[in-house]
Amino acid sequence: MTYNKPNPDDRSDNVEKLQDAVQNTIENIDRAEESLEFATGDEKQQIMDKNERRRDSIQGMRNEIKDEDAARKNGYQ
Questions:
Q1: Residues 54/25, Cβ–Cβ less than 8 Å
Q2: Quick one: DSSP state of residue 12?
Q3: pLDDT tier at 48 (50, 70, 90 boundaries)?
Q4: Measured CA distances, 3 to 6, 7, 9, 25, 52 (Å)
Q5: Under a CB-based contact definition with an 8 Å cutoff, are residues 24 and 56 in contact?
């Protein structure tokens, strides 16, 4: 029987990946806000709710960026 060996944990580019994710999420918020003028009442509320969740997500990603950057500076120990 063969076993799959997991790949080693490579955190070397996590900060950059998270920064890209933050930027993409900000762009999604902007696009969603632009679409509000064409949305109906229910759609507007859904867009606003989703953007609020996106903002919460951005805050979480920024916190994780700080943690990953500190870990990088400490040699991931």
A1: yes
A2: T
A3: very high
A4: 9, 12, 18, 38, 43
A5: no
Residue 1's pLDDT is 65
d(CA 45, CA 17): 30
Indicate the pTM of the whole model: 0.82
Separation CA 12–CA 72 (nearest Å): 7
Q: Extract the tokens encoding 53.
A: 């969740």
Residue 14 host element (H or E): helix 14-35
Which residues lie below 8 Å from residue 19, measured CB to CB, with a gap of 6+?
65
How many other β-carbons are positioned within 10 Å of the β-carbon of residue 55? 13
Burial category of 18 from C-beta neighbours within 10 Å (exposed 0-12, middle 13-18, buried 19 and up): buried
Q: How far apart are CA 77 and CA 24, in angstroms?
A: 30
